[in-house]
């Protein structure tokens, strides 16, 4: 195949299979890409844009194009094409999230520690949510501030309240307080940070990327699934790991290396579719009047 006709935006792996999706997300969350300098990322973006324009530089291989697309997807916003801040990138989520989660699980016994690490976690989450928002729905600095303060307050109130409540409860129950706080905060942080999408709707397209209109229902569905997925992803590490640590800390060798408990816990620790029939009546009627029954599904960026 001539590289001048290479479709760099085509899915490299079959997204209809679990292994295909797994390979795709391993590819774009590769934390090694977070270490690359901006100049390298900009080179990758230039190559991707050249390929899209049908002018691949001579001597470029297909593997180089795949790697350039990998760097592009890891560091540039899918809606705007702007380079995202390092902490908010998907490629930073594994090391960043792992470290914060480990410290939240380790330092849960005192109120000051709970307050500090919940604040760190919500600051991290707010930045990630803003960085990976649907950029077609702009959000003002005031709205960002309100979302951040509300989510942080929710997390702190949940964590501190449960921390005090569980003083007389079994030790394991107290270890689950960080998860409860994270779950509660996610239910507030994400919808608040992306409220403009709910109010104004997000762009929906056909399978070829042609814009069909804006949908509030698509925004609600996308944000709801993001909230659920965030809580689900946090659950294994924040529910199962405390059980493991509770048992391990009873051994004498663990009691001799308490200074390593934190590092040990640290170490242990995208596009969606929607049926046209589920859209708002006015948008659904508009699509049907223009395209008839040829379009059954619309597609939208639900954000990270």
List the helices and strands and how they pair.
Blueprint: H1 18-28, H2 38-52, H3 62-75, H4 93-106, H5 111-131, H6 141-165, H7 171-175, H8 177-193, H9 195-200, E1 202-205, E2 211-215, H10 216-248, H11 252-255, H12 261-268, E3 272-275, H13 281-291, E4 297-300
Antiparallel strand pairs: 1-2, 3-4
Molecular structure report:
- The chain is mostly helical and 304 residues long.
- The chain has two domains: 18-83, no CATH class; 87-274, no CATH class.
- It contains 13 helices and four strands.
- It has helices at residues 18-28, 38-52, 62-75, 93-106, 111-131, 141-165, 171-175, 177-193, 195-200, 216-248, 252-255, 261-268, 281-291; strands at residues 202-205, 211-215, 272-275, 297-300.
- The strands form two sheets. Strands 1-2 form a two-stranded antiparallel sheet.
- Helix 5 (111-131) packs antiparallel against helix 6, helix 5 (111-131) runs parallel beside helix 8 and helix 6 packs antiparallel against helix 8.
- It is globular.
- The two termini are 33 Å apart.
- It is found in: Mitochondrion membrane.
- Keywords: Amino-acid transport, Membrane, Mitochondrion, Transmembrane, Transmembrane helix, Transport.
Main sheet strand line-up: 1-2
Largest sheet: 2 strands, antiparallel
Secondary-structure element string: HHHHHHHHHEEHHHEHE
Estimate the mean pLDDT confidence.
Answer: 76
Output the number of helix runs: 13
Determine the strand fraction and express it as a percent band: 5-15%
First and last CA, distance: 33 Å
Gross morphology: globular
Give the % helix.
55-70%
Instruction: Return Rg in Å.
Output: 22 Å
Q: Structural class of the helix and strand makeup?
A: mainly alpha
User: What is the count of structural domains?
Assistant: 2
Q: Are there runs of 5+ residues with pLDDT below 50, and where?
A: none
Total strands? 4
